[in-house]
Amino acid sequence: MAKKKNKGRDPRHKVASLGVLxxxxxLAKGKLFLQQEKYQDAILCFKQLLKQQESPEILQALxxxxxxxxxSLAAKSMTKEAMVLLEIVAARxxxxxxxxxxxxxxxxxxRFGEAVKLYGQCGQHMASDQRQRxxxxxxxxxxxxxxxxxxENFPEDSPVARYYxxxxxxxxxxFARDELLGQEALQQIPxxxxxxxxxxxxxxxxHFQSDKDLGCSVLRKIDKDSPYFxxxxxxxxxxxxxxxxxxxxxxxxxxxxxxxxAQYGVNPVQFPVIEALSGSDGRPLSLYKIIxxxxxxxxxxQRITMLRNILPFCKEQAQGxxxxxxxxxxxxxxxxLALAAEKDGATLSAVQFWDDYLGNSYWSDxxxxxxxxxxxxxxxxxxxxxxxxxxPVRVLEKLLKSLEYEPGHxxxxxxxxxxxxxxxxxxxxxxxxxxxxxxxxxxxxxxxAAMRACGARKAHKKASSLAxxxxxxxxxxTSVLDFLVESRLEHGRKLASQKKWLLAEKELQSAxxxxxxxxxxxxxxxxxxxxxxxxxxxxxxxxxVAGKEENGSPLLGHALTSLEARLxxxxxxxxxxxxxxxxxxxxxxKAIDRSEFLRLVNWLLxxxxxxxxxxxxxxxxLTNSFAKAAILPxxxxxxxxxxxxxxxxxxxxxxxxxxAALQKKYPEDLEFRVWSLVADTRQxxxxxxxxxxxxxxxxxxxxxxxxxIDFVEYIEDVLGKKSRRSSFSNSLFxxxxxxxxxxxxxxxxxxxxxIPKILGSSEKSPPKPKSKPVGGKQLNLFDDEx
Amino acid sequence: xxxxxxxLEVAEDAGDSQVKKAYLGMVRRYPPERxxxxxxxxxxxxxxxxxxxxxxxxxxxxxxxPTPAEIAxxxxxxxxxKDPLSREEFLKQLDADLRGxxxxxxx
Lengths: 786, 107
Prior knowledge:
The complex is a heterodimer of chains A (786) and B (107). By secondary structure, chain A is mainly alpha-helical.
């Protein structure tokens, strides 16, 4: 296609059009062009005018037009063109002032040697600020060794040459990384020397290593016109985070963004992707699009790393993207799809993708067994999470399968055993633990779990042998020491119940009660006394007295005696005798021992099964002490435990008193108000006003918002128990007791806790041994109660 | 977006002792009292790949959505570069800067 000619910009056309103008019009036009900085047009005008008439005024105007044109070319870095015109001017007007522009052009052209020489000739005629700028530039050029400049190129008395050794020495010491010497050397550079900015920059860099903020504040002092500005700007950029850079970029005008990127060291090819990132909302899909659109800006490694991290967040779209991606092997694709499904909450799909991942694995590769086991464990974890397709069978299956690949993974053995205990049976759990012990005979947590399982199955001999094995590995394991004592005491009771007196005595004598826990101290002697009493031997009594003394706490020693009398099923007369002694001790005590009382509270909350039931009975002998407990100065946490224990032991009068006192002491803590109301519902009144339940409901709702979930759940459980025996419920519903209509629950909505299934009095089940107090781990108040 | 292996400057197939050695080396280079942020970054990286199980779990299950800035960080070599300038680098940069500076200079 032929190029369209612009008549207005064609010089020949212009000359032709100018040729017809009279001289005075040409002069006026030329001066106007000069004013408008249209130097090329001005030159044409004045040249045309010179053809008509020659005058000094026109020659001077032409000289000005040429000089203007040279400057405009220099400003556009058209150095060669400017040089040609400069030579024309110099030849035509030998006296023209072209030194500065010549110097600029020499520097632009990189002819530094000639520039230095010219500066030597004209330097003294320059303004002082121009001179300083040039000398700073020459100093920097000399230091960088640009264009082969050497100190000898400068006159000896010039500041550039004079301070050069000091500047060089400062650079040397700075790069030798000697901070102290570096600072000293920098001080040798005078402030008024051409190396002033070098001094500022090196000082900034020196601080930069230890104190970035200080370093940056020093570096910012370097002016934009300084030759060191770009180095300083780059250092400042390194102090900036990528976030800061992107923010800067977003705030920078479009036409300056490229320059900013260059300053940060961004490759021009990468500019579009940086630009896209600065405007990105950060969502997975938009990040994926940026990366796939600009994939050439990244190395393959970078791209893979990014996609690995982005695609799992692309949810269901990940599958489509991965299908198109040639970067990943199929096994890797399944892994990423599984992660994407997990992120999407599709646990079932995730488990299936992990199955596919394993299906693609080399199952015979023993090096990958660990990986397979880890994936199987992960699948078990996911299966547990999936509430719709949750299946305990599959969870346990996965866990046990993972153990086939990694039998040394103790945590999984324990998890599987615990899971089997919770969802299958104790015997399944026991079997798993037996396998675990066979696999890891030296692993203390496994041995401890197996020991406890044996204890629960009343396999005391096996439990003892496991405990001994643990103590060989960990001789100061206090929980095992305690367990060993507990196990022997329990075994003693079992043997005594079978009337194997000798064996029972032997077992009890072997119980090492040198343990710290007060609940076991002297207890074997008490038990021995019980065994003798059961045989009708009165010499059991001195043993019991000795046991109480060994225990050290009068109240607790007597409480343990009453407890053991019940556990050994001594005749009622004996039990009453021990209870009487307990009451005497309680009465003789002038004040309640705070720590003794707290221990009792702790036992109430931690004893299990039959022991807990019997202890509850024993506590009924101590009603006075429990009632007096209300006036003791409890901390908030202690107060909560005491309330809990009082409710557990059915000591409702004490609970009413204590919760009221604590409510007064801690008015901010709603928990005590709840306990107070719970006590009201347990007073044995025929009808509990509905407003009491309403208030509890409101308080529990507030507590849920305060994240006191454990407490709320505990209270719900307590009230559930209460409702089962409540006459209130019976009077409220006249319907048939067996009616399980869900509508009733909807009508009588009691907030966070529903009305439990209502049982008639005939359906009241006899009190069963409580498995464990609800509410998770108890706060242990004592050092010796482990 | 920088992997813990890159942070600790250790190979992906390194063993426990190599990872620990690399971690201690980095801590010596970036002591917490002088470089608290860098130290945190190094510590987090170490926690992710400390043991063989950790490294395996990292490879199998770890994914963290990068921010645009993290992706930009991969490209910003100068920003990511933490080591101080050497004399040669400094002079090279100064040379290039001065040529650029002079190219547009008008006195």
